Amino acid sequence: MDIEKSERGLLLNYTGDGKGKSSAAFGTALRALGWGWKVGILQFIKDDAPTGEAQFFRRYFPDTIFEQYGSGMLDRDADHRGAAERGWERAKYLLKNFDGELLIFDELNVVLHFYLLEPDEIREALLARKPELNVILTGRYAHPKILEISDLVTRVECEKHPFEKGFPARRGIDF
Q1: How far apart are CA 135 and CA 12, in angstroms?
Q2: pLDDT for residue 121
Q3: What is the number of structural domains in the chain?
């Protein structure tokens, strides 16, 4: 096995219109934590409403960075750009200085799609990250410039969803 490739961090991108992108990222976080890795999670878009993942990481893995930089649904009147910019400042710092092995930027793809942040800046920062750092991006609408540099792209497709039948989001399943 090529030593350089075995030690270089990967950029993974979970995108598409189906449910499970963030869940896949959190599953990878659990796997990494099982191996003793340090993990950092920044959630974009999502506000401080209680979620199972936030409660889980804060309760069982309090040393894991878990921070939220969002103002909630984008159709609400709020400072979405300001929240995204604050999160991105933190993300840039972590890309250069994080002493762990895995960073997750949940919903960053959505932030880029709505031009709350500049895709070229994100691309350059991801390329300039610490070489051994693994990064996962999630969210619909992954930007082509980010897909181009991603080592793994998984598209989650929605074939059927309970929302279509009027079921509300459920604690423990959706949040």
Answers
A1: 6
A2: 98
A3: 1
